[in-house]
Amino acid sequence: QVQLVESGGGLVQPGGSLRLSCAASRSIFSNNNNLMGWYRQAPGKQRELVAVIFIGGGTNYADSVKGRFAISRDIAKNTVYLQMNSLKPEDTAVYYCKATYNGYDYWGQGTQVTVSS
């Protein structure tokens, strides 16, 4: 079992920045097949991948966030971060952390990000 706790969401103006954090209850990066990532779901839309980070530190991003968002991790703290810069109104969504651990997917409770003036 893995528990994930997200934090860092909120209201920000267009062009602003936020950093999301996701703390896992155990070490995720202990297996080559494990990974962590961020997803988001806007009202009326399907949940979509934002960014993932692999055991070796490699990353993948959705085209819509490339160059603006950065995923990183602190292995000692079992924590993954999502630095979001140059935020746009279309980034408004509930952001979810996901961990794939030993073949199972675990989700956090989600944190709301609202980009509005």
Helix amount: under 10%
**With helices defined by DSSP (H or I, 4 residues minimum), what is the helix count?**
0
Would you count the extended β strands for me? 11
Radius of gyration (Å): 13 Å
What is the first-to-last residue Cα distance? Answer: 40 Å
Shape: globular
Structural class: mainly beta
Largest sheet features = 7 strands, mixed
**What is the element string, with H for helices and E for strands?**
EEEEEEEEEEE
Overall average pLDDT: 95
Low-confidence stretches: none
Report the sheet-strand fraction: over 45%
Helix-strand layout with pairing:
Layout: E1 4-7, E2 10-12, E3 18-24, E4 35-41, E5 48-54, E6 59-61, E7 69-74, E8 79-84, E9 93-101, E10 104-107, E11 111-115
Parallel strand pairs: 2-11
Antiparallel strand pairs: 1-3, 3-8, 4-5, 4-9, 5-6, 7-8, 9-10, 9-11
